[in-house]
Request: fold
Amino acid sequence: MINVLFICLGNICRSPMAEAVFRHIVQEKGLQRQFHIDSAGMGSWHIGNPPHKGTRKKLESLNISYEGQKARRIDPKDLDKFDYIIAMDQQNMDDLYALSTVTHGAEIRKLMDFVEDAKEKNVPDPYFTKNFDYTYELVQKGCEKLYDYLVSKHFKEKK
Ligand code: 4NP
Reply:
């Protein structure tokens, strides 16, 4: 089982979008039994809330399910439970490292680092930009590349 946790600030806009998009990709490939996928936020403002309306509308327009997704705050134990912690921006990275000084097993990476020649190094926050389409474009590309990375790392024979 490969455990993947997406992280953003509020866990209502970007990381729930990435969670839903990544799960959709994995399901399309029939690998859902190989992955545990979740998301969490660094902040606690929206605990228990569904994804933001802008994220919901975008996902609905693409028939991508976000069923059952509710905001939660990261738990320091997540750093042990998950193999990959995928942050949306550098602030999330800094906050993740500030959570603990202990070295954990998780690989902590930024989503956009998986995209060669990415337009952005950080996924812009549509809570502030209001541009859910552009955020989706980046999240979708990032999730595809993350999927390729994980599949070649875990499921393809290394030569
Ligand atoms: P997210 O966006 O990190 O992509 O979920 C935000 C949502 C809410 C807040 C900030 C960012 N907020 O300050 O409430």
